[in-house]
Design goal:
Layout (H helix, E strand, L loop, with lengths): L5 H4 L4 H14 L3 H12 L6 E7 L2 E5 L1 H11 L3 H14 L3 H12 L38 E4 L3 E3 L10 H11 L4 E2 L2 H10 L10 H10 L4 E10 L2 E10 L5 E9 L4 H18 L4 E8 L2 E4 L12 E12 L6 E17 L4 E8 L9 E4 L1
Parallel strand pairs: 3-5, 3-6, 4-6
Antiparallel strand pairs: 1-2, 6-7, 7-8, 9-10, 9-14, 10-13, 11-12, 11-14, 12-13
Helix pairs in contact: 2-3, 3-4, 4-5, 4-6, 5-6, 7-10
Length: 366
């Protein structure tokens, strides 16, 4: 435990005293008190660093953002923990900050929380302002764009009545708030141009060409099949560049009701969303147009996924509260995952934007 003698600290700068009190509070698991003191220190010294003068010839390590992120983690407040840890890593790399950030990305829970009391890693903040699930600050670049093509239907007949299956599918993918979904009118225009109908009988190569023609990163196609009273949906997400299947998911129901159909569509869309998580990482190696990033299979990365490479600039500070509410972002390039290993992946640059990436630049899946 850190002991603080008032006589010894009388000559220290107030920010240093607040930082030390914060560290002491952390050792006592008093997370809220620690956060309060780290915030006081940050009002004077706002950047994590490995070496800072505290008094006279005395130098210390100073990581208030990192330690505050760890406090929020232990409180189960992951939406606040993540940006603090990323802020720390942006200024100076430390294994401690990286370790806690990895825990959040994996969905780990603090040891002091039981599975029944620990809050779930939020996909949406509890207030009315909604943000993408894994982005700690404003989204970087465009979301992964998909076109939902007509599904082939077999054995359905008139069971669905006047229900438009394609509309239901499009709505299902819009509602999961993960992808940018091409409007149906735009899709029908290109289908007409290529003399393709809404039958849903489209092979992977043709589906990829259609998606590429309207600027989509991927296309969703598949089938709805009925046998007796049962019905199943099979959906595939196809990369528009390679025509390779990124992921394939299905759902099953024992009846043809509209409610069950809607639930199946929502289930398939949610499964595909889970297969393309929004995750953050760093560039750890560069060789020409190939980059190595510190995200791999254990983080949910898959071959064919796309990502934005970017760096953060100056803090955006609220003029009244002086709270850091974000960072300016410089988008460097887009890349696609070519090889995936357990803890890292190799990606290839597909679109250059504002500059060449460097080691420790940031990565977020598209």
């Amino acid at each position: 435990m850190v002991c603080l003698d008032p006589q010894m600290t009388a000559g220290w700068a107030q920010w240093h005293l607040s930082y030390k009190i914060g560290l002491e509070a952390m050792q006592q698991n008093d997370w809220n008190r620690a956060i309060e003191n780290f915030q006081k220190a940050l009002q004077v010294k706002g950047q994590d660093t490995k070496k800072i003068r505290s008094a006279g010839a005395m130098f210390i390590e100073y990581f208030p953002h990192r330690e505050m992120g760890i406090c929020y983690f232990n409180l189960g407040d992951f939406t606040r923990a993540k940006p603090e840890l990323e802020n720390s890593l942006m200024h100076v790399f430390s294994e401690r900050a990286k370790d806690y950030l990895d825990r959040i990305n994996r969905g780990d829970r603090p040891a002091s929380f039981s599975s029944s009391t620990a809050p779930a890693l939020p996909t949406r903040p509890p207030n009315s302002e909604r943000r993408p699930e894994s982005a700690p600050t404003a989204p970087v670049g465009e979301r992964f764009t998909i076109a939902v093509l007509p599904f082939e239907s077999k054995g359905i007949g008139t069971q669905l009545g006047q229900i438009d299956l394609l509309d239901k599918l499009v709505t299902g993918f819009v509602n999961i708030n993960r992808f940018k979904v091409i409007e149906r009118a735009q899709l029908e225009t290109i289908l007409a141009e290529q003399k393709l109908g809404l039958s849903g009988v489209i092979d992977a190569s043709t589906a990829a060409q259609i998606g590429k023609g309207i600027g989509a990163d991927g296309v969703v196609c598949g089938s709805v099949i009925s046998s007796g009273n049962a019905v199943s949906i099979d959906a595939r997400l196809i990369d528009t560049e390679t025509a390779a299947i990124i992921t394939a998911r299905d759902a099953f129901s024992s009846s043809h009701s509209l409610q069950n159909l809607s639930q199946m569509i929502a289930e398939v869309a949610a499964k595909i969303k889970a297969d393309l998580p929004l995750i953050n990482g760093y560039v750890i190696g560069i060789q020409g147009q190939q980059l190595t990033i510190d995200l791999g299979m254990r983080h949910g990365l898959k071959k064919g996924m796309k990502c934005h490479i970017y760096c953060e600039g100056a803090s955006i500070v609220h003029p009244v509260t002086n709270e850091v509410i974000g960072k300016s972002v410089d988008q460097l390039c887009e890349a696609q995952v070519n090889e995936v290993f357990e803890a890292y992946a190799v990606v290839g640059i597909t679109k250059s934007k504002s500059g060449a990436p460097a080691i420790r630049d940031k990565v977020i899946t598209k």
